[in-house]
Every structure is written in structure tokens, then in C-alpha cells.
């Protein structure tokens, strides 16, 4: 670890050497954002790590190091899930997330990254997905489902499934449900199938900027040559990266990006579709025995990458409220204050010790609402929350993606 | 320290199909990758370079289409690629392959360490490291998970897992090191180096004549073994067979499977 | 065409097997090879020979004959106490040049592969590695080997023309050993050993037993999940009988029932054992990616809709606490029968 020299000065206290070159690098990569920080400490106070870990994540202290060009951070920069709770509270508008990413990018250059992350990048390099799954199996989720192959002349939307949902058994059900819902609502869409390229968000999330750029360029080229004009994602992570980080890669804004909840919410709001009242029947058929036939209570996990990062809190709620027989109840932390599930910032590929998982807290909050369904709109949230729920062993709560809930309400066989 | 890593570019196993009519492998449209164990070999070689300095060269036998894959190895930290590419080298079995690689290594000269992955995902003979050591008349550290050099750079010590624990073996240099699959995490490419790594100047292509190869020992000519039949194995899809019967019967079935295969 | 040091015409009508030893008896693979060698030899009327190198071979030689060898080539010397490629390749090469077998079999073990690879080059002959099947063509003595490649997706039949010996390494567990017949007679050939300590340049600096566990190097893994209720002792007993290791999903590791180095999955160990027996595991994706490369995947879970069954070859819907003891008993009975 190339730490700056520690020097004992005359009075016997430690001081640090400021590294100008380091300061320049951080300053450039974080676009000077660290200079705004006046060390109030709000960030450390609101970081979710403070709820689960003794001593929290010392965000303020890390920012100080970045501000001065003093290399005083270590593995703790990998704890960040990029939930930007800190950023939303920062009185100076410091782009704290960007600063952490800048520090991560430097760590890659020094080859000081958490184990498992180089393998994740190699997985994308050789397999076009971060899960080391065979690329030839990327479209297996669609077997028997008759999903149209995207044709820009025919289809309004490219439905972008994403690596995690394409390969994870549990999440494949969400992809299937969404496809059914879109079809039922007459949305014109197609998929790129086995040739769907990786969006590169997992690369961006761990701070490897050059490889992210390379991947994004390649993916953008594929979209351009396929004539993609409108793109709808299943995952808020893919949504965030396409919407906010492909701009630097594309020559021009060549496609519009939506999260699927936005597309469906708009249809509902315009009265173009309505959601049938089939949810309760379907739930009872599936042995959700705790469902109250007179009215189901649902609570909603705001995905950080859709909500706080992209200000989309309404679309998922419009959908939920559009389902007959559903009551929506909010958890203690919701909307702008939503509590991260712990999966962002590359943490799906890093181990979080038991007792330190945000999703454990979140499940407790969900149970406190008395809701019988915890709705998600993000594949990482779903996986993390279900995992925590299983660990607790509770049975009176079910975690479902909104697409699955709407699919059940429509009631077609799946 | 001058090292060589023998790297093979292989088709992705799950995509390979056999054409039942021609009884040969269908390679069209099949994705390729660096043989995964060779990535571990590269990492070990680069780790030695980090600790002791010197040069790491990639040696491979195959067509120029291998190059973009091998250049990823240079981006990781290797210095140069030597590609043995010639039609007469094709169709080589282990004997001819190890002969050819040994001629390439001799042409390079002054090599201290030769790293190989334990086996390759296509042929998986696992015989290249020992065959290579034999042609070169040097010792080997086999199925090594960690290694180091002595102070004077005259010997190498390697750790090798055995059934009930591990051994540390020591051999004089130069030596072959076969690297145990998955024993380390290959570093990702260094993007400060990547553009340089992918330049044509990092590559030297040699043909059979350049390495002074005896035509009797290379390619099909030099291969005693011959493939007389090729078939698609029953699909790799999981059987998903639900065992039936009483718990006792089922336990018996599982015991049989376990015993037969362990 | 490159020629081997001796060809089919000068080769003897014999199949030789390189026999490995462990704690003064022949290893399982050696016995399996003797059984297969005996079968092939009987089919074509050839002799079966065994090669034993060590420091005190007499019991091993008897064992080899009892398991089917017609002759045993035995080299005894203190420099042969431990396997070193230097000593073993020198002596076996001399034996082979003297006996000129038509076929030479090795177990595809670390030492076997090392030795076979060296000898194949020294003898300028062909080598078929990791074979799953062997056949001898009657009349010609040509060996046809079944070899799989591409992770098992492709099966090849490989032979060699005139080159001798025809060398093959065999995967352990492919062939079955037979019961010994202690009344069998065989010839003991004591092979002279002229080795000097300076010939051996591979030095064993250290030998350590039983330290830690590396699941990536293990061929049989018995993994337990939440459904085990913390009872990893049951899995350990099974692993001990079979010579495997115990692994786990994240929940039991979190709960402190088992060490983190045994956690299998995306954020744990990714392994590719020959067999994975998964007990009380539901089959979440981040676990599956750690064990999906197993050749044979067996799953036991009381929930018939557990996702793990999608990934298994053999599926058992049942209670692990009932089934595991029964498996242990069944194994112990089978192993007792073998002896």
C-alpha cells in the first residue's frame, strides 16, 4: 500500500504528507467535487453502515483525505453501495458517490482491489456477463415464451433484460412475468436475445472506468446498428448507467431510456390500460395463506438506483395503486429516505458478513408495516431481501417484483 | 529472470458441437477464450516478475486469430508474444505439440522458468508440462499452487497439494512449472498498458522453419495418436432425475453413485 | 513420421500397469487398472505386468499378483522411497526398454500423469490421457481409447498406429477393482537399481499433513445449507468415509456452524468437484455459481419445488436427517463387502 509518509513532527504528533499528484488525479476524476466539502459530518451520520456496523463508514474522513491528496483510505471504500443517502443530505451538494468511484478507480491502477472483483471483470470480458455464465445460455430464460426478436421497424421498445435477470433462476421469473405483462398491455417490444450485450454497470459500480468505457462503446454500437430508439430496462442499475453514463460514450443522445415501471405507469395514467382484479385470487391459488381476501397490503422498496439516484419514486407507486384490492403502506424509510438493500456499488460480488446486512434491517421494517407483500423493482433488491427474509424464517411476508404482482393481477397462465 | 508462459486459446467448451456427418468439430460461431488454467499460469508468472523482476513472454501455437486473446495477456503485464504459426504445425497431438513448443523455447534461449496451465479445457491431456520438461531435459514443479525462487535465483521451490496435505519441492533452474487450476486470481488488464499491449510490435510470429523444427516431429507427421472416431457426448444438461422408492432404497442408490465415483 | 524407440513388431504381448502405493498397499486406482488390465489381457491372450518402485515391495508384489498380475517388475532402493520424477522415470524407462510392453497404463493421478508424460516423450510414443474406456483390437494388439474433451461434451476414440508402448492414463473410478485371489501365482522380476543421490535433483523440502482446506482442489464435496439445522457432523462423517470435504452455503456459516473457508458460492469458493452432494440447500443462484461445474450433482431437499433441483442430476425429495444416516450405513455396508 503506497501510503503517504507518516512523519513525527517536533511535538511528537503524527502528520501526513500531501501528495500533489494524487490530489490532481482525484480532483480531475471527481470533477473537483471534493473541494466543496466543509467537513460537517452529515454524510457519516446518515450512511446506512452506521445502523449495522460499529464505527460506521467514515465517509467524512475519506472525503478529507480526497480533499487534501492524502492517501488515508483503505478497504472501506469498497463498503460503499452507492446508495447516495449521504449525497442527498449533503448541504454543499458534494458528489460523494463520484468521489468514492474516483478512489476506486485509483485502486484499480494500484492493483489494490477486493478479491473477486478482477474475476468479475474477466467474466464480462470472456462471457459478456459478470456471473461466469455461458453466454450461449443468455436467452434460456425465454424458452417456450415466444419473445419477439427486436426489429427496429416493428418494435417501439427494446426490452433490455440485463445479465442478472437473464441468468438467475429466481429473477428469470421476473423477466418472464414482465414479458407477459407487456404483451397483455399491447406494448410493442422485442429483445436482443442471446446477443444482448452487457450494459457494463457492474464495471462502473466497482470503479474501473476505462473498461467500463470500452464496454459501453461496444454496447452502444450494437444498439445503434440495431436501430434502437427507445430502450426499457428491467433493472434500475442498467437504467441508471444507460441514462446517465452512456452520454459520454455516444456521439449523440441516440436512444431514450426508461425503467419498465415508467412505461407501464404511463400507460395506466393515460388510461390506455387498466389492471384487472386478479391478484388476490392468484395469490390464494399460490398458497399465500396470509393474504387477507378483503384487501392486500403491500409495501415498497425504493431502489436506490431508480429513486434517490434518478428521482423516480412515483412510477412504481402508480402501478401498485393501480392494482385493484391493494393498499400501499410505506416503510419507515421510504422515497428520498429509502434504505438501501446493500446490493449496489458492486457489493453483489463481495461478501457482507452476517449482522451487517442492510436488507436484514429492511425486512424488519417491512414486517413492522404489517404488509403481506414486499414489492421490489430491482433484481438486486429482490435477491438481497429474499435472502434476508429466508434467514429470518418468517413466512407471512413475500417478496415480489412489481412485474410479478401485475402479472398475477392479469392472471394469465405462466 | 526470463520466463515463458505457454498459453492456448480454446473454444468455449459448452458451445462445441460435433458434426455427425463429417465427424469433426464445428468451430464456426463458437466463442473462444484463453484456456482458463493458463490464466492462472500467467498470474503466477507475473507474480514472479513482480517479486524478482525480469521478463514474461507468452508462447502459443496456433493461427493468427489467437492474437487478440494473447494480447490480453500482455495487457495483464506480459512483455511479448511469440506465436508459432504454420499450417504444418496443425493437427499436432501432445508429442508433436510439446516438441514444437520446446523448439520455440530453445529459439528464445536463456529461459529460466516455463509456466503452463495444468491442462487445457479442450483436449485436457494435462501432459504438456511433463512432455515439455522431457524435451528440454529439465526438471519440473508440478501442480504448483505457490512458488518462490531462492536468493541466488538458482533454484525454485513450489508448493504442491497432495491427498493428505502438501509438499514443498525444490528443483534447479531452468524448470517447468505446471500451475494448479484456480490456485490464484488472475489480475485484470492494466489499462495504462493496454493500448501498447495490443500493438503489432508486441508480436513475433515464427513458422516451422524459424524454430528449426524437424518436419518428422511436427503436426500430423509428428503425432503418433490418431482420432479414429468423434461423437457428441450425451448432452451436458442436468439429468434432473428424481429418485424413487423408500428412503432406504434411495439411500442405497445414492451410496452406489457416491462409491462408484469417489 | 517420427518413430518410437521400439515398434509393434518388437513389442511383447503384454500389458503393463504402473502401480502406485500408499502406506504399504496399492492405491485404489492401481487395483482398478490391474482389474481392467487383466480383463484386456484375457481377451487377447496377453500377459499382465505390474511395475512397483519403492523401498520394501514384497507385500505390494503379492497384492499385485493377487489382483491379476502375471509378473511384477520390482525395483527396491532407498532412493525410491518417495516419488521423484528423476528416479522413477529413469527406472521405469529401463524396465520398459527391457520388457517392451505393448500397452502401458497409468492412473491419471498427479504422479502418474507426470511420469506418463515424461516417458511418452522419452520413448517417442503416443499417450492418451484421462481415458474413460479401453479396448484392445484382437489380432493386432492395437489399443483404442475413449477420451472425452470440451468438459465432457465430446467423446473421441483415439489410437496409435505402430508406436509402442501404447500409453494411456486412466481416470480414477472409471474401472472397478476385483476381489483378490491370494492363490494366484505370478513371476517376480527383481529389477536392478543403479541410482546415485546426485541423479535426483528434485528435493522434497517439506511434507505437511492436514492443514486447512481448499475446496477448489477437492473431488467430492458434501455441502450443507440451512436445511441441515447446523448438523454438519452428519456431513463430516459421510465425507470421512469417502475421502471428501464438507462445504456450506452462507447461512450456516453466518450462524457459526462451520468455517467461512468452507463457504461455496459467488462470494465464497467456486469449485468444480467430481461429485457435489447438496443437502438441505434451496439453490439460490449465488450458491449455484459456486458448484455448478460439478460433474455429478446430487441434491436432497424436503421441498419438491426447491430451485436446486433444476441444477441436479439426481434429485431426492426428502428429509436430510432421515436419508443421510441411511446413506452412511449403505456406504459402510458396501465398503465392508468389498473387503
* Main sheet: strand order of chain A: 4-3-5-6
Helix content of chain B: 25-40%
Q: Can you tell me the residue ranges of chain A where pLDDT is under 50 for at least 5 consecutive residues?
A: 1-10
Low-confidence stretches of chain B: none
Largest sheet of chain B: 9 strands, mixed
CATH topology of the largest domain in chain A: Rossmann fold
Q: What is the element string of chain A, with H for helices and E for strands?
A: EEHHHHHHHEHHEHHEHEHHEHEHEHEH
Please give the domain count of chain A.
3
At the first level of CATH, the class of the largest domain in chain A is Alpha Beta
Task: Please give the CATH architecture of chain B.
Answer: 3-Layer(aba) Sandwich
Work out the helicity level of chain A.
Answer: 40-55%
Describe the structure.
The complex is a heterotrimer of chains A (414), B (262) and C (339). Helices cover 42% and strands 9% of the residues of chain A. Chain A is of the alpha/beta class. Chain A has three domains: 15-109, Fumarate Reductase Iron-sulfur Protein, Chain B, domain 2, CATH 1.10.1060; 117-262, Rossmann fold (3-Layer(aba) Sandwich); 271-410, Rossmann fold. In chain A, the strands form three sheets. Chain A has a four-stranded parallel β-sheet with strand order 4-3-5-6. A four-stranded parallel β-sheet of chain A has the order 8-7-9-10, sandwiched between helices. In chain A, helix 12 (236-245) links the parallel strand 5 and strand 6. In chain B, helix 2 runs antiparallel to helix 5 (191-197). Chain B is of the alpha/beta class. Chain B has helices at 36-52, 67-76, 94-108, 128-136, 191-197, 247-261; strands spanning 2-6, 9-11, 17-19, 24-26, 32-34, 55-61, 80-84, 113-117, 139-149, 155-162, 165-172, 175-179, 203-206, 225-232, 241-242. The longest helix of chain B has 17 residues, at 36-52. A nine-stranded mixed β-sheet of chain B has the order 11-10-9-12-8-1-6-7-13, with helices on both faces. Helix content of chain C is 27%, strand content 29%. In chain C, the strands form four sheets. In chain C, strands 10-9-8-12-7-2-5-6-13 form a nine-stranded mixed β-sheet, with helices on both faces. In chain C, strands 16-15-17-18-19 form a five-stranded parallel β-sheet. A two-stranded antiparallel ribbon of chain C has the order 1-11. In chain C, strand 17, helix 7 and strand 18 form a beta-alpha-beta unit. In chain C, helix 3 packs across helix 4 and helix 5 (232-242) packs parallel to helix 8 (320-338). The radius of gyration of chain C is 23 Å and the shape is elongated. Classes of the chains: A alpha/beta (414), B alpha/beta (262), C alpha/beta (339). Chains in contact: A-B, A-C, B-C.
Amino acid at each position: 500500500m503506497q501510503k503517504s509518509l507518516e512523519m513525527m513532527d517536533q511535538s511528537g504528533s503524527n502528520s501526513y504528507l500531501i501528495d500533489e499528484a494524487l490530489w490532481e488525479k482525484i480532483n480531475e476524476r471527481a470533477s473537483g467535487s471534493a473541494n466543496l466539502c466543509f467537513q460537517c459530518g452529515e454524510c457519516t451520520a446518515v450512511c446506512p453502515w452506521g445502523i449495522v456496523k460499529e464505527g460506521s463508514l467514515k465517509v467524512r474522513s475519506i472525503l478529507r483525505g480526497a480533499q487534501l491528496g492524502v492517501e488515508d483510505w483503505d478497504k472501506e471504500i469498497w463498503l460503499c453501495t452507492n446508495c447516495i443517502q449521504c449525497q442527498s443530505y449533503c448541504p454543499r451538494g458534494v458528489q460523494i458517490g463520484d468521489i468514492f468511484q474516483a478512489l476506486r478507480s485509483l485502486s484499480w491502477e494500484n492493483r489494490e482491489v477486493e478479491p473477486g472483483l478482477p474475476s468479475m471483470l474477466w467474466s464480462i470480458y470472456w462471457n459478456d456477463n459478470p456471473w461466469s455464465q455461458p453466454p450461449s445460455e443468455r436467452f434460456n430464460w425465454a424458452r417456450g415464451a415466444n419473445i419477439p426478436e427486436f426489429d427496429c421497424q416493428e418494435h417501439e421498445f427494446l426490452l433490455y433484460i440485463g445479465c442478472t435477470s437473464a441468468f438467475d433462476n429466481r429473477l428469470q421469473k421476473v423477466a418472464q412475468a414482465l414479458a407477459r405483462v407487456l404483451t397483455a398491455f399491447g406494448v410493442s417490444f422485442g429483445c436482443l436475445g442471446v446477443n444482448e450485450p452487457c450494459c457494463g454497470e457492474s464495471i462502473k459500480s466497482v470503479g474501473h472506468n476505462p473498461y467500463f468505457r470500452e464496454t459501453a462503446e461496444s454496447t452502444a454500437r450494437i444498439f445503434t446498428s440495431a436501430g434502437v430508439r427507445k430502450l426499457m430496462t428491467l433493472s434500475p442499475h442498467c437504467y441508471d448507467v444507460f441514462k446517465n453514463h452512456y452520454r459520454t460514450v455516444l456521439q449523440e443522445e441516440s436512444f431514450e431510456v426508461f425503467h419498465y415501471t415508467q412505461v407501464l405507469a404511463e400507460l395506466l395514467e393515460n388510461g390506455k390500460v387498466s389492471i384487472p382484479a386478479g391478484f388476490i385470487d392468484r395469490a390464494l391459488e399460490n398458497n399465500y395463506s396470509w393474504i387477507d381476501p378483503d384487501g392486500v397490503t403491500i409495501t415498497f422498496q425504493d431502489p436506490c438506483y431508480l429513486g434517490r439516484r434518478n428521482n423516480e419514486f412515483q412510477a412504481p407507486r402508480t402501478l401498485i395503486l393501480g392494482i385493484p384490492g391493494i393498499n400501499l403502506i410505506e416503510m419507515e424509510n421510504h422515497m428520498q429516505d429509502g434504505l438501501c438493500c446493500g446490493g449496489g456499488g458492486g457489493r453483489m460480488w463481495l461478501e457482507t458478513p452476517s449482522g451487517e446486512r442492510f436488507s436484514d434491517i429492511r425486512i424488519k421494517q417491512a414486517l413492522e408495516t404489517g404488509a403481506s407483500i414486499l414489492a421490489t423493482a430491482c433484481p438486486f433488491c429482490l435477491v438481497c431481501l429474499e435472502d434476508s427474509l429466508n434467514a429470518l424464517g418468517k413466512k407471512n411476508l413475500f417478496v415480489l417484483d412489481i412485474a410479478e404482482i401485475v402479472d398475477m393481477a392479469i392472471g394469465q397462465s405462466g | 529472470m526470463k520466463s515463458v508462459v505457454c498459453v492456448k486459446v480454446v473454444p468455449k467448451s459448452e458451445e462445441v458441437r460435433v458434426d455427425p456427418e463429417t465427424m469433426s468439430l464445428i468451430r464456426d460461431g463458437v466463442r473462444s477464450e484463453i484456456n482458463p488454467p493458463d490464466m492462472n499460469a500467467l498470474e503466477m508468472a507475473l507474480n514472479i516478475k513482480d517479486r524478482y523482476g525480469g521478463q514474461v513472454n507468452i508462447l502459443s501455437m496456433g493461427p493468427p486469430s489467437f492474437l487478440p486473446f494473447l494480447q490480453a495477456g500482455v495487457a495483464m503485464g506480459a512483455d511479448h508474444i511469440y506465436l508459432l504459426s504454420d499450417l504444418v504445425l496443425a493437427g499436432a497431438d501432445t508429442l508433436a505439440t510439446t516438441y514444437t513448443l520446446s523448439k520455440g523455447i530453445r529459439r528464445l534461449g536463456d529461459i529460466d522458468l516455463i509456466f503452463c496451465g495444468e491442462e487445457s479445457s479442450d483436449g485436457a491431456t494435462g501432459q504438456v508440462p511433463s512432455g515439455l520438461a522431457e524435451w528440454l531435459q529439465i526438471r519440473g514443479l508440478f501442480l504448483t499452487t505457490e512458488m518462490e525462487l531462492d536468493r541466488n535465483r538458482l533454484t525454485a521451490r513450489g508448493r504442491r497439494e497432495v491427498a493428505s496435505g502438501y509438499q514443498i519441492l525444490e528443483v534447479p533452474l531452468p524448470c517447468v512449472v505446471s500451475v494448479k487450476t484456480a490456485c490464484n486470481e488472475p489480475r485484470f488488464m492494466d489499462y495504462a498498458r493496454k493500448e501498447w499491449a495490443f500493438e503489432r510490435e508486441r508480436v513475433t510470429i515464427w513458422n516451422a522453419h524459424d524454430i528449426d523444427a524437424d518436419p518428422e516431429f511436427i503436426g500430423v507427421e509428428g503425432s503418433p495418436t490418431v482420432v479414429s472416431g468423434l461423437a457428441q457426448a450425451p448432452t451436458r444438461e442436468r439429468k434432473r432425475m428424481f429418485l424413487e422408492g423408500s428412503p432406504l432404497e434411495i439411500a442405497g442408490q445414492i451410496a452406489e453413485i457416491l462409491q462408484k465415483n469417489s | 513420421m517420427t518413430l518410437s524407440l521400439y515398434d509393434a513388431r518388437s513389442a511383447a504381448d503384454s500389458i503393463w500397469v504402473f502401480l502406485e502405493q500408499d502406506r504399504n498397499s496399492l492405491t485404489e486406482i492401481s487395483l482398478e487398472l490391474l482389474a481392467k488390465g487383466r480383463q484386456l489381457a484375457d481377451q487377447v491372450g496377453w500377459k499382465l505386468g505390474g511395475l512397483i518402485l519403492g523401498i520394501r515391495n514384497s507385500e505390494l508384489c503379492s497384492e499385485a499378483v493377487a489382483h491379476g498380475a502375471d509378473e511384477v517388475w520390482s525395483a527396491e532402493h532407498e532412493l525410491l522411497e518417495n516419488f521423484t520424477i528423476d528416479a522413477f522415470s529413469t527406472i521405469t524407462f529401463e524396465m520398459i526398454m527391457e520388457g517392451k510392453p505393448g500397452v502401458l497404463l497409468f492412473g491419471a493421478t498427479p504422479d502418474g500423469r507426470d511420469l506418463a508424460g515424461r516417458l511418452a516423450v522419452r520413448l517417442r510414443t503416443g499417450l492418451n490421457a484421462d481415458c474413460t474406456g479401453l479396448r484392445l483390437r484382437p489380432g493386432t494388439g492395437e489399443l483404442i481409447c475413449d477420451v472425452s474433451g470440451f468438459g465432457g461434451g465430446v467423446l473421441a476414440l483415439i489410437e496409435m498406429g505402430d508406436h509402442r508402448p501404447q500409453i494411456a492414463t486412466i481416470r480414477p473410478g472409471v474401472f472397478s477393482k476385483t476381489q483378490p485371489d491370494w492363490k494366484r501365482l505370478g513371476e517376480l522380476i527383481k529389477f536392478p537399481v543403479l541410482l546415485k543421490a546426485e541423479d535426483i535433483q528434485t528435493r522434497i523440502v517439506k511434507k505437511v499433513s492436514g492443514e486447512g482446506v481448499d475446496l477448489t482442489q477437492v473431488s467430492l464435496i458434501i455441502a450443507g445449507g440451512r436445511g441441515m439445522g447446523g448438523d454438519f457432523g452428519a456431513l463430516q462423517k459421510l465425507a470421512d468415509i469417502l475421502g471428501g470435504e464438507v462445504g456450506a452455503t452462507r447461512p450456516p456459516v453466518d450462524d457459526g456452524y462451520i468455517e467461512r473457508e468452507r463457504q461455496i458460492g459467488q462470494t465464497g469458493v467456486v469449485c468444480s468437484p467430481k461429485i457435489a452432494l447438496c443437502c438441505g440447500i434451496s439453490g439460490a443462484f449465488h450458491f449455484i455459481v459456486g458448484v455448478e461445474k460439478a460433474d455429478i450433482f446430487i441434491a436432497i431437499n424436503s421441498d419438491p419445488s426447491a430451485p436446486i433441483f433444476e441444477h441436479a442430476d439426481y434429485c431426492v425429495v426428502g428429509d436430510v436427517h432421515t436419508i443421510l444416516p441411511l446413506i452412511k450405513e449403505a456406504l459402510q455396508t458396501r465398503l465392508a463387502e468389498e473387503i
